[in-house]
Write a structure and sequence with these properties.
13 helices; single chain; 244 residues; 74% helix; mainly alpha
Length: 244
């Protein structure tokens, strides 16, 4: 399993170079970045079911315990997301929006990731799916939280803020123990190849999703300023909290 974790780390490094993260590091204006966040909606809501279904398919009690921990750790984060989106957009996407052509890329990537739950032929692959999801999350949440901090938004948000990262870091002892335990596992013949292939497919799905987000940001940058931007709404909310 040590080789698989190294392969995930390699993919994670490549994912960190995605143009969207470069955009965030450049401190592009809030008005150009904020609109893509609602396009995460389909994935964020489905993610809870990915964790639930994946956990239900484990056989090994020790590995199932790890899966249960991952699920409990992320329980309720979808509510943080919806609360943040309400502050940013003034509303949550309705069903027509989520199933419109504008959100198709997110849906396609989500379906690909959901399919991995059913495609996995062993508990090792199920754990590797969790590790892949975790590794992409680390890159995204660090990048988006740091971006908002540089933009002066430090108190309004939960899902997209340092608060989310701090909650994840509170479980670091378990995470270190888990990764140390997984490193001791010697995979049966053939499992290395299938697990690496799963990692590659998961990262391909996330790349598809983030390509879509980057395209949205690029299009938004070319649009004229609306009378009241989502950026103004969020910054007004931030100012209200600070003044309270």
């Amino acid at each position: 399993m040590k080789k698989i974790q190294a392969h995930i780390a390699d993919q994670q490094l490549g994912f960190a170079l995605h143009p969207l993260f470069a955009r965030l590091r450049r401190n592009d204006p809030l008005r150009e970045v904020l609109p893509f966040l609602s396009h995460l909606s389909f994935w964020v809501m489905a993610f809870q079911d990915v964790l639930r279904l994946n956990e239900s398919r484990f056989h090994d009690p020790t590995l199932k315990k790890i899966a249960r921990h991952h699920r409990s750790e992320d329980a309720g984060h979808d509510k943080w997301f919806l609360a943040d989106l309400l502050k940013i957009e003034g509303q949550n996407p309705d069903m027509r929006a989520l199933f419109s052509s504008q959100h198709a890329a997110t849906r396609d990537a989500t379906y690909a990731l959901v399919s991995e739950v059913y495609r996995a032929g062993s508990d090792y692959e199920r754990i590797v799916l969790l590790l892949s999801l975790e590794s992409t999350g680390h890159i995204f949440f660090e990048a988006i939280a740091a971006y908002f901090e540089r933009m002066g938004v430090t108190q309004s948000l939960q899902y997209f803020s340092r608060h989310h990262i701090d909650v994840e870091k509170s479980h670091e002892v378990f995470e270190h123990q888990m990764h140390a335990f997984l490193d001791t596992i010697v995979l049966p013949e053939g499992e290395n190849a299938s697990c690496c292939a799963l990692v590659d497919r998961a990262y391909q799905a996330f790349t598809l999703m983030f390509d879509h987000f980057e395209n949205l940001c690029r299009k938004q940058a070319s649009q004229p300023f609306p009378s009241e931007t989502v950026a103004e709404r969020l910054l007004s909310h931030e100012a209200h909290i600070r003044a309270a």
